[in-house]
Each structure stands twice: as C-alpha cells, then as structure tokens.
Specification:
21 helices, Nonspecific Lipid-transfer Protein, Chain A, disordered C terminus, alpha/beta, Rossmann fold, five-stranded mixed sheet, 629 residues
Length: 629
C-alpha cells in the first residue's frame, strides 16, 4: 500500500519547491483503485481521505501501478507521472490546462513518494580549469536567407558533427567535447540550429511561425558541414537529430563516413493520451511554455541518472525560445515520419549506420529502434541499460563509457539480415567502413544460443580468405629473400677473408711493398742520371747499371704509382680474378633453393597461426543486449 501521506514532507528543505507550491495553490484527487486521497497544495501540502472538494483534476491508477511508481528504480514507463500517462498507466481527468501548467511541479511533488536517493556531492574543481572547447559564430547564406549559427568544437582528427534534440541546443554534448579520449581522435563539432541556443533566428522571424521540416533540417546540416569544409564527417544525432541522420544518410550518404543515431526510429510514439499536445500547452499565454516543455520531457529521463545532470538537461529546455520546441515537434511527429519512406535506398555500405537507444526512452522506444535496425540493416544496434532519451546529457559518464565513438572498436557490432542477427567485430568508426575487407565467414555458435539468441549467427574473420593468404605469401617470400641474401652475403664475405689471409702469407717477412719502393728509387736515379753531363754519362750509366743489377729491374707493365698499391702477386686483381663474379645460373638456382623453402615455411606458419587464433576468438559479451529477429 502506497503511503500518500509522505507527500506532506515534499516541501521540507526545498525552498524553490515551497515557493512554487504557493503559486500553484490547487487541489487534486489521487485515485488508487477504489480508494480516493485528497491533496491540497498551498503553503503546506495537506493529505486527507476522500475526494478533494473543488479538485482541479484527478490522477487515477491501479494500486500495482502506484507501487511500481514508488520503487527506487521503477520499470520503464513508471518513472514519472507523464510517463505513466503516456503509457496508459495513469488517467488524468479534469482541467488539463491546470495539469499542464503544473507538470514539472507535480513531478517533483510525487517524487517524494520514493525513498530519498543518496545525497550526491559534486566533486570539487580545485584549481580553476579552462575547458578546451572553443565557441565561434558561423555566418552563411542558405535557403535564401542570411544566418548566424553558433558552434563549439574541440579536438582534432575525424570530424564528428553532433545534432542536438528538439527544443535544446549543443550544450547537450558538453561531456563529449571535454572527453580527452574522444577529442584525441575526433574533431567534435556541436552547433545550435537556427532559433536554438545562441544561434539567432533569420531576419524577419517576428512575422513567421517556426516549423522545422525535413528539407530545412537537411539543408541546414549540409550547409554547416560544407561551410566548415568537413571532409567525410561522422554525423551523430539524438531524438530529432537521430531522425535527421536517417534523412542525411538517405539523401547524402556518400558525404558522410558513418551515421550514429541516438534514440532513432522511423516515427515517434505519441502516447496513449495526447490531450496535452492537442491543447498546445507548450505555447499558450496562460502556461509557461518552457517550464511545460521541461515537464513533458522529464518522463524520458532515466530514474538512475545523476540529479545534477538531469536538472541541467531540463534547464536547457526551460531556456528555449517561445514555440521553438513546438516547432521542432512538427518535424518529429509529422514531417519527418519515415514509415512510408523507401528505406531500402539507404546504402549501409556507403554510410554505415549505428543505432543506440536508451532503455527508459518512451518516445523512440527500444522496440522501434530494433525495428529500424532490421529495416536498414544497421551495422550496430544496442539498447543502453539505465539510460533514457538524452544519454549524452543526462548521464554523460555512462554514455561515453558505453557508446562513445572511441569505444565502438570494443563493442561487437550487430548486423541484421533476413535470417537472424549477425554479430561481428568492427574497427573504430571512420577508419574502415568496408565490411567486404574483413573476409567474414558465417557460422552457428552454441554460446549465442546459450545466451538466449538461438537464431544468432556469429561472424568471425576467415583465416583462409584469399586476401589473407596473399598477404601471408608475400610476407613469407619477402622474409625468405632477406634471409637468403644474408646467408649468401656471409658466405661471400668469408671467401674474401680467406683470400686476404692467403695474400698476407705469400708476401714474406718484408713484403712486396718494400721491394717496390726500392725499385722506384732506382728508377728515379736513372732519370736523374740521364740529365747529367756528357762527360760523366758513361760513368753514371755504368754505376747505375751495376746498382740496378743488384736490385732487379722493375716489372713490366707496372706503373710507379700502382706498384705500391698492387704488388706483382696481386696484379691479377686488375683482370678481375678476385672481384665477386656476377651470379650465373648455378648461383640463381642456389639462391632460389634458399628462398622457396623459407618463404613456404613462413607462409604456412602464418596461415596456421591465423587459424589457431580465429578458433580462440571469444563470443561477444554484449550478445544479450541485441534483439534477435
């Protein structure tokens, strides 16, 4: 039995909620089955039995629904009053405008029925830090009008273009912009759509009714991408951005490296009760439209998200421009509906599609995203446990740990076909998007069946693919050539060493260099003697002849300059005796006899290693997160 008397303690310690209660000043009736409880809101919260006199509206649900709502972590669909109303678990009767006017206040009030969560203490910053995020304005013309668009960026590498949700702005990607692991490899860019955040509306907006359309959204994203000269960026969008990445992939798939859809679906679930939207509580004079906007999206946030991040996400909605959120919903619910679109034209090879959705999203539900994954043959689909409609904003630490582009490499990517859900390994987004290069071979895997996916097909790398074998062969032959060259060179160097040693032994104690020097001296004496006078010519010739006879005449065909470098015993080098001969047929055959066995051995060893390694690849631990066909 739910103790509704705990509502009386809701205002304690919350000055902002107490002030809001004074302004609300209303009465309502809570129905739990047949039981009725009156709630009077004013300076204090008064709870009694029976129907409240003059109640503005009543909130009725079954006792088990109220019991689920009051759990610390309720099931999806029971995390808020609007969520219960949307899923048909709660009926609201009476003045719907009064109910819509106090949506956010009622969510805070009835949250007191749950056990108080642990007090979250914000971590101290310590030394002041300047974030590495740079904000700029981009001025450009598109659709016949000048625009001034604000964007923030951080990092370097592959461009990652981020699209925010309806009625919000680029601040939702603040954690990704400040994540060093992401910005180390990606240039993260988050811009505000015109009319949103710091981006101004185009001139003449005061006489226009803002409505976002498919053409306007696609043209805006393409204009920004081209103006910033982004080369094959990755585009990531959430909610309406998650829908937009589908339109971008359909119309401009070749422009993008990959598309990441957060909370993507062909259409949005309007819910079981659409009276709030029909009454236009988001834009009417007697309702604070932006507070109502925050009240309507609060039901899409996970109950386990940190309170600080949750309320910062809601604050972005409370700061929006008049009727902007309503204008975005025109695209989300009507103009951007893809149920009748030719999704088979989406080329998943040109622009791989990655789909991730939060467990607590009641708009683009996991079931809708799973259906989309089947239709477009998404490269990857995953349900993010414990997250809602704004994963990158409501719980950024959990989101970046599970689903950031840098972590895609560690995730097992899923691909859906007509036979079942295929699981395979895939590298990081932007580095290799061609599945054909992976040489995949499908096979059944018993572990997948044990995890509850009996129809899953696990794809592993094929070690016997021709591309892999050609690589092994080339590597083996190259290695064999290197080893054979080293062996041949060592043999040749050994032969040369033996020849040099033999030459040293044959020169004797004094060596030929000493004898050649003496001969050169004798020849110089001869030339000097010829220049002597005639009177002493005969005597000089006799003396020189006698001297030459004692030493020995110079060797024929030997230059006085070469004789010191090349003694007679080494004269054969001039004729190529000791030069390495060019390899003949016998040498080539010996060379090949070394290369072929070595290359074949290396190739066989590499191929066998591939087979042994492929057999040891583990089955993904994320199989249970993927929905079988």
């Amino acid at each position: 039995m739910v103790e509704f008397a705990r509502l009386t303690d809701a205002l304690d310690g919350n000055e902002a909620l107490r002030r809001r209660a004074r302004l609300a000043a209303l009465s309502l009736t809570v129905l739990s089955g047949e039981a009725a409880i009156s709630v009077d809101v004013g300076e204090r919260i008064a709870v009694g039995r029976g129907v409240a006199p003059g109640a503005a509206f009543s909130l009725g649900a079954r006792p088990d629904a109220w019991a689920e709502f009051t759990k610390p972590v309720p099931a999806p669909g029971f995390q808020s009053l609007v969520g219960m109303q949307r899923m048909g678990h709660l009926k609201v009767e009476g003045d719907m405008v009064a109910y819509g006017r106090n949506l956010l206040f009622l969510e805070q009030l009835f949250a007191a029925l749950r056990p108080l969560p642990a007090r979250e203490r914000s971590a101290d910053i310590g030394t002041p830090v300047i974030e590495p995020v740079v904000g700029r304005y981009l001025r450009l013309d598109f659709n016949g009008k000048p625009h001034r668009i604000y964007f923030e960026e951080a990092g370097a590498g592959i461009p990652l273009l981020c699209l925010h949700t309806a009625g919000a702005d680029g601040r939702q990607y603040r954690a990704i912009l400040n994540d060093p692991e992401i910005t180390r490899r990606y240039r993260v860019i988050a811009f505000d759509l015109p009319w949103h955040g710091k981006s101004s509306p185009p001139p003449g907006f005061e006489s226009e009714v803002y409505r976002l359309t498919t053409d306007l959204y696609v043209d805006t994203v393409m204009a920004v991408s081209r103006a910033l000269e982004l080369k094959r960026p990755v585009v990531m969008g959430c909610s309406i951005g998650g829908r937009a990445v589908l339109h971008l992939a359909l119309r401009h798939g070749a422009h993008f490296r990959a598309a990441i859809g957060l909370q993507s679906a062909t259409h949005a679930e309007a819910g079981a009760d659409t009276r709030l939207r029909d009454l236009g509580v988001l834009f009417r004079p007697d309702v604070h439209g932006q507070e109502a906007a925050a009240g309507t999206v609060a039901c899409l946030i996970s109950p386990t998200s940190p309170q600080a991040e949750k309320w910062e996400t809601l604050w972005h909605y409370m700061q929006g421009g008049p009727s902007v959120f309503l204008g975005d919903l025109h695209y989300y619910f009507t103009d951007g509906d893809l149920r009748n679109a030719a999704l088979d034209r989406l080329d998943a090879e040109k622009c791989p599609l990655y789909l991730l959705t939060g467990e607590y999203d009641l708009s683009a539900t996991p079931a809708l995203t799973a259906e989309l994954a089947r239709l477009v043959k998404a490269r990857h689909f995953e349900v993010m446990e414990g997250l809602g409609h704004f994963p990158m904003s409501e719980s950024p630490r959990q989101f970046t740990a599970i689903c950031c582009p840098c972590s895609i490499a560690s995730l097992r990517t899923g691909r859906v076909d007509g036979q079942g859900l295929a699981l395979l390994e895939h590298p990081p987004i932007g580095e290799d998007r061609d599945l054909a290069r992976h040489a995949l071979r499908p096979r059944r895997d018993g572990v997948a069946a044990g995890l509850g996916l009996p129809r899953a097909v696990v794809l592993r790398r094929d070690p016997l693919h021709p591309v892999a074998l050609r690589f092994d062969a080339v590597a083996g032959i190259a290695f064999g050539i290197g080893v054979a060259t080293a062996i041949r060179g060592r043999r040749r160097n050994g032969r040369r060493s033996r020849e040099r040693w033999g030459r040293r032994q044959s020169t004797g104690r004094h060596g030929f260099r000493h004898a050649s020097a003496v001969a050169d001296r004798a020849r110089r004496v001869l030339r000097k003697g010829r220049r002597a006078s005639r009177d002493h010519e005969s005597e000089s010739q006799d003396e020189t002849s006698a001297h030459v006879a004692d030493i020995g005449a110079p060797k024929p065909h030997t230059s006085p300059y070469t004789s010191m470098r090349k003694p007679a015993a080494l004269a054969g080098r001039k004729r190529g005796v000791n030069r390495p001969a060019r390899p003949g047929r016998k040498d080539l055959s010996a060379y090949c006899s070394l290369i072929l066995p070595l290359g074949s051995t290396i190739t066989a060893t590499s191929t066998l290693s591939r087979i042994a390694l492929a057999a040891q690849l583990p089955v993904t631990s994320r199989v249970r997160l993927l929905t079988p066909v």
